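Complex 151.
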Amino acid sequence: MDDTLDLYQELILDHNKSPRNRRKVDPADRQAEGFNPLCGDHVSVTIKLDGDVVKDVAFEGSGCAISTASASLMTEALKGKTLEEAKKTFQRFHGLVTGETDEEPPTPDSMGKLAVFSNVCNYPARVKCATLAWHTLKAALDGENEQISTE
Ligand code: ZN
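Predicted structure with zinc ion bound:
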């Protein structure tokens, strides 16, 4: 039996094959870079703000299917959100894939397409792949322009 089938669902495969918003926002108001040495994933996130609204968000980089699909779905999920909403979505997503959350557990309904990553918490080695783009995003939103690492 192939137990990775659950992990690599169609939506993840699709976003890995044709990542959305894989480009650079230029000029960017916020940007950050992230590495996951464990897997070799690398992602850079650029953000254009309009007041406190995420007007545009894009990513570049290379990595495994999970990290690429996660970054792609993240850009789709966050465009048009306020900074507050974006940070909340980060927390929910983080809770979803790590299985650790202070709030109510995220439900597929509240997560939309991001719920496709709910199985990742069963694959601890993959959690960092799924959260890399999100940690990088958070660093960018917090104005930390330095490189971040999951290690
Ligand atoms: Zn990876």
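The pocket of zinc ion is lined by residues 36, 39, 41, 63-64, 66-67, 129 (CB under 6 Å).
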